[in-house]
Amino acid sequence: MKYELVIGLETHVELDTKSKIFCSCGGHSEAKEPNDCVCPACSGMPGMLPVMNKKVVELAVTAGLMLNCNINRYTTFDKKNYYYPDLPCAYQITQLNHPICTDGLVTLKTSMGERGIRIKQIHMEEDAGKLVHGGKYSYVDFNRTSVPLIEIVTQPDFRSAEEVVTYLNKLKSMFRSGGISECEEGAMRCDVNISVRPEGSEEFGVRTEIKNMASFEAIEKAINYEFQRHVDALEYETEELVQETRRFDDASGKTFAMRNKETEADYRYFPDANLMPIIIDDEWLEQIKANKPVAVDEKADEYRAAGISEKEIDMLLSNNKLMKLHNDVVSMGCNSKDAAAWILTDCAGILRKDGKSLNELTVTAEKLGAIIKMVDSGKINRNAGKKILIAVVEEDVDPVEYCSKLGLDRKVDESMISEVIDKVIEGNPQAVADFKSGKTKAAQALFGACMKELKGAGDPGTIKSVLDEKLNTL
Ligand code: ADP
Ligand code: ZN
Ligand code: MG
Description:
Blueprint: E1 3-14, H1 54-66, E2 70-71, E3 74-75, E4 78-81, E5 91-94, E6 101-110, E7 113-126, E8 130-134, E9 137-141, E10 148-154, H2 161-177, E11 188-198, E12 208-213, H3 216-236, E13 244-249, E14 254-260, E15 270-271, E16 278-279, H4 282-291, H5 296-305, H6 310-317, H7 320-331, H8 336-353, H9 365-376, H10 382-395, H11 399-405, H12 414-427, H13 429-436, H14 441-453, H15 460-472
Parallel strand pairs: 12-13
Antiparallel strand pairs: 1-10, 1-11, 2-6, 3-16, 4-5, 4-15, 6-7, 7-10, 8-9, 11-12, 13-14
Helix pairs in contact: 2-3, 5-6, 7-8, 7-9, 8-10, 9-10, 12-14, 12-15, 13-14, 14-15
Bound molecules: adenosine-5'-diphosphate (ADP), zinc ion and magnesium ion (MG).
């Protein structure tokens, strides 16, 4: 019999906020030493009260908008009670009854074609601390306690490991471009819920949940292993499938049972009376919408329409800083395709010569935009623009000042070009003789000499055609 894989994901993402979700301690990237981002509130001292971080709400809403969710204007927090040494309050503050976003949709393109994955909900919650086991003792580090998370829960809509990995990569690039999270190693963790059913069947099979997976590669392996285990159990009755939580062991490539699945009742959820309900009014929502970066798909379409190549689109979409630089330059009135070439080819080339990468680019949009505008308006030619760009990238000069200092914007008319060419032809009899004897390369040397004489000013196309004309009529 043929079996179908059914997967639903619960993905936790650490938000890139300056401070934690309910106190002013530094966020997840601040900590250097264990327990150096800790205060009485996030270490669970009695009587301390949580204070909501507004930025967390805004990032959660932004994520919801990107995933086409309904934004719930009334949202509340609940306590999820359990005891564990990394959870000093013995409860986690999370959202059960009124999550911030519901009913979204993401579309994926894979070898199975284009399919939609429904988002059940997105909720806000705090992370737990970390236990460090060493020798005789175990240590607890509260730096991660109360770091803000959003949890994105999908409906059981995935039908292959490929779809799962495509979805996770899509979330990652969306969240990066949205300033929601850089999603570094460990900042994006998934619980993978899997079941298997005979192909064509409407009913779901028994589900198992693989907890806390951080690597996409491991997720793929775990799904494939678990699929086969379920199929074997159904087909050959190798074991009885039960709803349970499992862990994936990277070394053996297998999953192992951890515990029976808890039900909601086990956590004794109840509303957190220490936090007021949050009301998101029209004005606030409009403000968040206005600041929302365009979704990756829309942005890619926009780049494509401007004639930017697929390779350049990938480069822009995977680097928030470059995308912003490009955007700012375009909003100064520069052509989008040109701007991409200036950044991704010219700036990259200059940096490469110094052994640097585009990540180290420090040129401002103002300066880059000024150069591109001078070129686009015909004030200077592209070579002159490139010369200015080198000085801007390497020495941070002012492009307009530098341009007039070197006289790159000198108006060069045809009569001046003609004069210079005559001078060059006169001064290089050998090259001219070579050209006449059929060495066409000699024309290039003469062209170079003209450009040098004009100090980079003048339109290269005009110079070339006038030079060719003169050489051919000699
Ligand atoms: P619980 O309350 O037990 O956590 P949820 O309804 O919140 O259950 O679902 C948790 C996750 O499990 C969701 O991502 C959902 O899509 C997924 N899920 C539910 N049923 C199945 C199933 N039969 N097979 C695979 N995934 C499932
Ligand atoms: Zn704190
Ligand atoms: Mg659940």
